[in-house]
Amino acid sequence: MSLSRVRALAVLGGLLLVAVIVVTWALVHDRQARSGLSNTACPKGYVVVDLSLPAPADIKVNVFNGTDQVGLAQGVSDSLKQAKFQVLSMNNDPKRKTVKGVVELRYGPKTVGAAQVLRAQFLIDNDTPDEFDPNRTDDVVDVVLGQSYRQLASPTEYKQKIGALGNPELPDNTCAAN
Of 45, 58, 66, 157, which cross-links 99 as Cys (Cβ 3.0–4.6 Å)? Predict the structure, then answer.
């Protein structure tokens, strides 16, 4: 066998090996195959949650002022309405809690994805404290404004942040809806 044929076979073998590795890695790390857990795959005692990312027009919010700044909830409510969110109510925080960060999100199983959209709107990260209540049955997210709130994201900032955040994470003791 000539030296050029040996080299060609070596290169071809190397490419085949790389292809096998890439395909194997893709199959092992395929999120789509595992993301569609059905309700029957949910362990006993776990709560089924909705991880879909709805459009702002499909998200219902209550806006609460968690600061001593007068009129903050009204201004943010107006801005959220301009961004097409459905603002149901606004008031001072019923828990009378002072929120130190930008915002605190309070939500239930039906609005895990909606909370992720609001994280992008307020330019906060997944590690920002929030209150997930597995017993909450409504489809509303409570937005409690904090002392560090300055403004909502611009449309460009929002798009960049929603991409950076990615899909929402499952809260503890939950599984994804179909």
Answer: 66
* Vertex 144: Cα angle to 138 and 147 (nearest 5): 170
CA distances from 106 to 15, 23, 31, 144 (A): 51, 41, 27, 8
| Residue 31 scores a pLDDT above 90 | no
3-state helix, strand, coil in the chain (%, to 5): 40, 20, 40
Q: Look up tokens 């092992």; give the residue.
A: 28
Task: Supply 91's token pair.
Answer: 């008031």
Helix H or strand E segment including 164: helix 155-165
User: Per-residue pLDDT for 6 more than 80?
Assistant: no
Distance CA 80, CA 73 (A): 10
* CB contact set of 31 (below 8 Å; sequence gap of 6+): none
pTM (2 d.p.): 0.75
